Amino acid sequence: MTRSVEDLRLESERSRAELASTVDQLRERISDTADDIRHKVSPQHIKSEASDYISHKTQSWVEGLKRALVIEWDLDWQIDRFVIRFTRRTHLA
């Protein structure tokens, strides 16, 4: 099947329009990516990320310490109860 010059011209125009649209989309994506990179390497963002990380780690450490203290207190309390019971039994016997 042979195509007419007009058909070829119309197809060429459609292809050109699609290519122009694709280039615009890529240009927008690259611009957005560049903006995102600039934001992520900005001193304010790095400072915020570091601050959040330190805060999270400190909170985790404090929570772990609290749990350890509760376990320690519970263990001490159980030992004290055992000693009291044992002492009562030996004195009663």
Produce the secondary structure layout.
Layout: H1 5-40, H2 43-92
Can you characterise this structure?
The chain is mainly α. The protein has 2 domains: 41 residues; 39 residues. The chain is built from 2 helices and no strands. It starts with a helix and ends with a helix. The mean pLDDT is 90.
Which key phrases capture this entry?
single chain, 93 residues, mainly alpha, 2 domains, 2 helices, 92% helix
How would a crystallographer describe the biggest sheet? none
Which consecutive residue ranges, at least 5 long each, have pLDDT under 50? none
Structure annotation, total helices: 2
Mean pLDDT: 90
- Give the tally of β-strands: 0
Instruction: Kindly provide the radius of gyration, computed on alpha-carbon positions and rounded to a whole number of angstroms.
Output: 36 Å
Tell me roughly what share of residues is in helical segments.
over 70%
Outline: rod-shaped
| Domain unit count | 2
Work out the strand percent.
Answer: under 5%
Structural class: mainly alpha
Please provide the ordered H/E string of secondary-structure elements: HH
Straight-line N-to-C gap:
115 Å
